[in-house]
Amino acid sequence: MTPVNAKRQAAMFATEADGPYAGIVLNRPVDQVFSYRVPKSMQGRLKVGARVRVPLGRGNTPAVGYCVTIGVDPEDGVEPDRVKDILEVMDDPPLIDAPMLELTRWMGSYYACSWGQALDAVVPAGVKKAAGTLMRTFLIVPEETKLARETLQLPPKQAEALAVLCRSNELLTLDDACRLARCAPGPITALKQKGLLHTVKRRTDKPLVDRVKDEPEAVRAPLDLTDEQRVVLDTMAPALDGDGFAAFLLHGVTGSGKTEVYLSAIERVVARGREAIVLVPEISLTPQTIRRFKRRFPKIAVLHSHLSDVERHRHWRAIAAGEVQVVVGARSAVFAPARNLGLIVIDEEHESTFKQESIPRYHARDVAIVRAQKLGVPVLLGSATPAMESWRNAESGRYTKLTLSKRVAERPMPEVGLIDLRNEKPERGHALGGLSAPLRLAMREALDDRGQVMLLLNRRGFHTFILCPKCGYIVKCDACDVALTHHKGRKRAMCHTCDAERDPPEFCPSCRTGLHYGGVGTERLEREVRAAFPDAVVRRMDSDTMRSPGSHEQVLKAFKNGEVNILLGTQMIAKGLDFPDVTLVGVVNADTSLHLPDFRAAERTFQLVAQVAGRTGRGDRPGKVLVQTFCPDEPAILRAREHDYLGFVRHELERRREHRLPPFGRIVRLIARGPNESEVRRFLDGLASILKSLAPDGVVLLGPSPAPVMKIKNLFRYHLRLQAPTARPLQEMLHQILPTVVLPGEVELAVDVDPVSLL
Ligand code: ADP
Ligand code: ZN
Description:
The structure is a single chain. By secondary structure, the chain is α/β, with parallel strands linked by helices. It has 22 helices and 30 strands. It is 31% helix and 22% strand. The two termini are 39 Å apart. Residues 477, 479-480, 482, 495, 497-498, 500 line the site of zinc ion (ZN).
């Protein structure tokens, strides 16, 4: 095993020369390309992008790696006889094509992980284990046997079996042949022993038994575009027609027809024989969205999280074979192996779920931009509330800004009212619940008018905290620095971070006072709503009630059909849904995200209110939104009330500029964790002082300090932040430091470039 010189590696990569030496990367945190010898039997068969099995280390433990180069020489300074042989070529044809190799190399260097780790993340598990296929042994009749057949003196059963094998147009297995020749395996084995038959191993699909076939959707013609939509498409036309890389940011209020723009743009690309990838947040991979795409594109692959390994593998192969026009999926669909890509669309581009929170910690939006750049194709980012980063890129001219300022069909934006919770008093004899008097009244009116109501509350469970009224003790998870939530239906106190649960305690463990259960989660809200509106059909949608596959779809369908009057839930209900009869949306607590110790708290709050507000007034009737808050003067909430994204952006960007936060600076966050708190802290202190001594002008180091969530699953967490006006000095520091870091004991270090969460 020997590292490969980087320049040389690039040269080999470009020529894809055939040769006896291969560069292999491994799915380990070691950023090196290792040289191996390609045995004669594998030369020509091993291709760049294939997985291989190689012997590793002194013990020659077999490990799986990816072949990234093939060259004629061993590496500079490497003794040819010290290079080990590759043991096995695992893929033929290779899984990864050349552009994907380049993209993953960029990911490794940008996100500070190894090339092998990046590569391993782009191939789904089902593809790696070739789910749904079988290695089977087939019988082959060699030409010599066929020619000599007349003259062979064979026992009748063997003669009959051979005749069957000669007649068959397909390859037969031993079982097939026995069945067709109506014999036991004996005669065929005898033929093999006489050398009259050969065998060969091939991978084949397992027969499909349990695959539910989707009903095909009747393909519908596109709508006549509105004037605004037309302008948007005209602007994109040259790029869609093959003019090269371009990034567009489509800012369109909810209901302005963004999805229709995506569909038309994709149509244009598909008409040229190209493929499109559409990324959506997992949560909006709803049947409603999927149906809309299926109606326009018959050859579509939808990659959602409920796919089995087998289905995922089949989709992947269909995409790689060019049998798919449009791929719709969540974050990882950005790696879909489309070979003839013409467009990448990212819907709700501001969503934090596009960031992966495990290695490689990539952001699908940024990976999409780089993939498109390398391929010379356009990217279309769409949102009603674009991320500050994207907005800034559009203002600086890196992206082209496109606008849909109005809802389709002159529908007005809903009126948004604020309810100041500081003025709300509980009714006599009642605890203050989730619904204020004005919200309850508005719900009554909406229901009386035969309208539907949606209520958003971003906290699941019944009570959201358990507290000692005397000493202030808060019941927390044993393993995490997180307050437990009371789930009354299940009679459990649960940790939403590690899923640990226990019996709900009655008394304070430190002073034996009776504990107070407080706060409103969706479970408690449901009970309150049912009690207040006994005549209404109420459904709750959160990850507790939506455990079984299909339940999500079922509830949404019932709501759409008007069988449900009130739908309440977590952000699951906030995204991308289109229900024309919703006339009232209530935000039960707009402050849940406002006070998080994260500089994006205001942005998230604005986005959330704007998104739910977008769920109403989508039909012929106007809609109304009521937002309950303790902070009615917060700019995020005030601006959301006015549907004033631009006003919010102006204010928020000013604040970010002042503090040099993204998009006016870059952040790298280093998180250390381990079971021994002082060890973690000592390690990060040491790392911080090295970083400080290296930091060039303009790089600021913040911390180390305990992370806001200081303990998760019994691991203590400390973090530090590096900030700089651009990414480059940070990247350089990481590349210099990370290879030299020695982790003590059980300490782990996570490097998060462009972090989305700071908790
Ligand atoms: P967004 O994605 O911005 O929320 P949609 O594309 O879902 O907006 O459009 C909102 C509604 O308007 C949908 O019901 C859609 O079918 C309809 N719509 C969009 N474009 C047009 C159009 N050009 N003509 C008529 N209806 C349209
Ligand atoms: Zn926990």
